[in-house]
Write a structure and sequence with these properties.
The structure holds 2 protein chains of 2 kinds. Chain A is α+β, with helices and mostly antiparallel strands. Chain A is built from 7 helices and 11 strands. Chain B is an all-alpha fold. The chains are: A alpha+beta, B mainly alpha.
Chain lengths: 243, 386
């Protein structure tokens, strides 16, 4: 039901945005042609990552390292303020002694609390479900950091130089995992997923949750998946198995 | 026109000052009204400075006049300081240029005080019937100009006047190396009204008498009370003749130029790469912020990174390599963005997040078609840079 409503709403919006004219100056306009529905950001896709905690090794930090390399996340030896977009979490059950290790990052919620609380609209969800910060609009108020139940967002405390061209970062803004949006838009998979696969653990699977034929959808349908803090009804795009 | 206007302003200032000093001397000197007077030289200097810079007597005699008066004059100071960026080349003043850069945002907001102050005075004398010192025809025109000029100046910012050309023109005026002025109606109106203001100011009592009105006894200075200056036909006629002779021809020429050129629309984003080199070369200077912002929305919000006019293409031509072969940073005088933004004192914060030293990427180089579009200009003018 929700899917249907969402689809018709998207069609309506696509029609409304068929021809956008941006006024640059009196008498001077910039015409923006309609966004093709085939565009990555406008397709009716829902990007997600399925993480199999059973396949994840407690000692392996390939995903964390790959993220730091991909985005140039420098460590300054100050864990309180160093940026960390993805982290390894170990949970154990005192009754059984069972212990599981898995990566945690921005969960790319369908109903993201960070977007709800953002006073400027900098925190937003793309049409394909990826939650981002538009740093041009971010004022660094950090409401989103407090609102996120997954502690996924970071504040940039340090001056940053030599940023990656595809990932501008700057002091005084909020940031989080972008699900490697620059790679996804090019048809590639996120760096952490790629690194995990290269170690042979294959604990992370990236794909379109809205496409019933995608591998991620099939696996979710067959084996089920856990949404962390499902009680908050944020409906994360990052799902877990085996926890 | 601009030389003549400046000459009239300076001459008028000189004549009025001499006249005032002469009258003051005749009526026994300008006495600061408050007692006890300071006995020492330093004390008198401090008192005089506080009169000139803080409008001290006005503060104690008329709080409303002081609030708007001080706002107006400090605002005017900041606005004039901001406009230094059009008049001075950074090389002329060396490190002092940093002050000009620093004052820019203050000047932008200082401009709000000009219409506020002038408007407050007008409201006060027209509706409250108080302080009718600026009630002659010339005075009213000058007040109207002080309201209109800043407002038109703000419009200049938003129609994206080609300030590179404006600076070339202004510096050309100062160095007698004349350059053309862009035929932008808003800019021409702004400058024309400023020339009008410069010509009218010496004929208005605004120039000298307002600040002194609170310090010295005005009727003694004027000889016959405020009313005696209200109607001075010969002055009005002289001003009218001057105006016609000086401001008429430039206005006609400017209007003809604007009519000939029309208002050139910015090209669509898709025509960007070829457009900025083959067509109007000022398009990129004027509208690159709009293009960049539009591109930002396309990329960040719509996820469309594969457009043919992506920013990597700009970088592929415009990145400047330093001595060591790597691209130079924004603070380097050779940096494509930095060199111009430094000279024009326009501060940007793009590079607080973005890397200003992005290396050229071969894959992002323009296609053969775009190189073909660039070639004719390169061969005729020797440069593909706008």
């Amino acid at each position: 039901m929700t899917e249907t409503v969402e689809a018709s709403r998207r069609r309506f919006l696509a029609g409304a945005a068929a021809f956008t004219v941006v006024t640059l100056a009196p008498g001077v306009t910039l015409r923006v042609a309609a966004q093709e529905t085939t565009q990555a950001g406008m397709r009716a896709v829902r990007w997600g990552i399925l993480i199999d905690a059973g396949a994840c090794s407690p000692d392996c930090t390939a995903c964390v390292d790959a993220c730091a390399t991909e985005f140039g996340l420098a460590r300054h030896g100050r864990p309180q303020s160093d940026p960390q977009w993805i982290r390894k979490v170990t949970v154990s059950d005192p009754n059984t002694g069972n212990s599981k290790s898995f990566p945690m990052m921005c969960q790319h919620c369908e109903h993201p609390p960070c977007v709800d609380v953002c006073p400027t609209g900098a925190s937003f969800k793309r049409a394909d479900g990826i939650v981002l910060v538009d740093r041009h609009i971010c004022i660094g108020c950090r409401y989103c950091i407090m609102a996120c139940p997954y502690e996924a967002r970071n504040f940039v405390h340090e001056d940053i130089v030599d940023q990656k061209p595809y990932a501008p970062r700057g002091k005084g803004t909020a940031e989080a995992c972008t699900m490697c949006v620059h790679r996804v838009d090019e048809g590639r998979t996120p760096a952490c997923v790629e690194a995990c696969a290269s170690t042979g653990h294959k604990a992370m699977l990236f794909g379109d949750l809205n496409d019933p034929d995608s591998e991620i959808s099939k696996r979710v349908a067959t084996f089920g998946a856990t949404r962390i803090r499902a009680d908050l009804r944020t409906n994360p795009g990052v799902r877990y198995q085996g926890i | 026109m601009f030389y003549a206007a400046a000459a009239i302003l300076l001459l008028g200032l000189f004549v009025q000052t001499v006249r005032l000093v002469y009258r003051a001397a005749r009526s026994g000197g300008i006495d600061l009204p408050e007692t006890p007077a300071d006995a020492s030289r330093v004390g008198r200097a401090v008192r005089l400075a506080s009169e000139v810079f803080l409008l001290r007597s006005t503060f104690f005699s008329d709080r409303w006049a002081w609030i708007f008066g001080a706002a107006f004059h400090f605002g005017l100071f900041l606005v004039l300081a901001r406009h230094l960026r059009y008049l001075i080349e950074p090389a002329w003043i060396g490190p002092l240029w940093k002050i000009v850069v620093l004052v820019q945002p203050f000047g932008f907001y200082g401009g709000i005080a000009l219409p506020l102050g002038a408007g407050a005075w007008w409201i006060r004398q027209a509706w409250l019937g108080d302080h009718r010192l600026l009630d002659s025809r010339v005075d009213r025109v000058v007040l109207a100009l002080l309201i209109a000029i800043p407002l038109i100046g703000y419009i200049n910012t938003y129609v994206r006047t080609d300030i590179v050309a404006v600076k070339a023109f202004m510096v050309g005026l100062l160095t007698f190396d004349w350059k053309p002025l862009p035929s932008d109606p808003v800019l021409l109106l702004h400058l024309w009204l400023v020339a009008l203001l410069m010509i009218l100011l010496p004929f208005s009592r605004l120039l000298l008498l307002i600040p002194l009105g609170h310090i010295v006894h005005l009727p003694a200075l004027l000889g016959g009370g405020p009313g005696s200056w209200r109607r001075t036909p010969n002055v009005v006629w002289a001003a009218a003749v001057l105006l016609l002779a000086l401001l008429g021809p430039p206005a006609v020429i400017a209007a003809a130029q604007v009519a000939k050129d029309g208002i050139r629309p910015a090209p669509g984003f898709s025509g960007l790469v070829a457009g900025h080199s083959t067509a109007d070369s000022t398009v990129m200077i004027r509208f690159h912020p709009n293009f960049l912002l539009s591109y930002r929305t396309t990329v960040v919000h719509h996820g469309e990174r594969t457009t043919s006019d992506n920013i990597e293409r700009c970088v592929s031509c415009h990145a400047v390599s330093g001595a060591d072969g790597t691209p130079v940073g924004y603070t380097d005088p050779q940096h494509f963005c930095g060199s111009c933004h430094f000279r024009e004192a326009v501060t940007i914060d793009c590079f607080e997040c973005h890397n200003s030293r992005i290396p050229k990427q071969e894959s992002a180089l323009p296609s053969a078609t775009h190189f073909a579009a660039l070639r004719p200009r390169a061969s005729t003018e020797g440069s593909v840079r706008p």
